[in-house]
Specification:
Immunoglobulin-like, alpha+beta, 1 helix, four-stranded antiparallel sheet
């Protein structure tokens, strides 16, 4: 048995052709993206300070395809691969564990995170930026209280 559009009513043919065209469009859009690891880049280390002291918790994100990482207790965020380019650095407070500690146990070290000023939460308003370049150390220290 052979299927052709001639056996369908005109409205069904239009719908089927539209669906085929949209499917082709979605497939072509999905095939255009390359994973970040295929773009040349480097490992990056970013230390966040506040008045010269490490910020011990938080989430650091780089604009665009830069990625993100959690700050460790020394205020360092390590990213394995960031494509070369310039990025705006945004900061968000750490997520608070929604489960309270068990009675009698010590609360976590980051029980009440200090929020960052709002300007650091958006790539449009943050004053922080880095440039990842080939052949450089790509280790950055940014102080949010300067």
């Amino acid at each position: 048995m052979h299927f052709t559009f001639k056996h369908c009513p005109k409205t069904h043919r239009h719908v089927l052709r539209s669906l085929l065209a949209m499917t082709g469009l979605f497939v072509s859009i999905g095939c255009d993206h390359e994973p970040d690891y295929l773009h040349p880049g480097e490992a990056v280390s970013i230390t966040i300070l506040s008045g010269g002291q490490p910020v011990p918790a938080g989430q650091l994100n780089l604009s665009g395809q830069g990625g993100g990482a959690t700050l460790d207790p020394q205020g360092v965020a390590s990213l394995e691969h960031v494509p070369y380019g310039t990025y705006q650095v945004t900061l968000l407070p750490p997520e608070v564990d929604p489960v309270p500690p068990e009675p009698g146990s010590a609360p976590s070290a980051v029980a009440t995170p200090t929020p960052f000023p709002k300007k650091f939460a958006s790539a449009k308003t943050t004053p922080l930026s880095i440039t990842v370049a080939e052949g450089t150390e790509n280790s950055f220290t940014l102080d949010i209280k300067e």
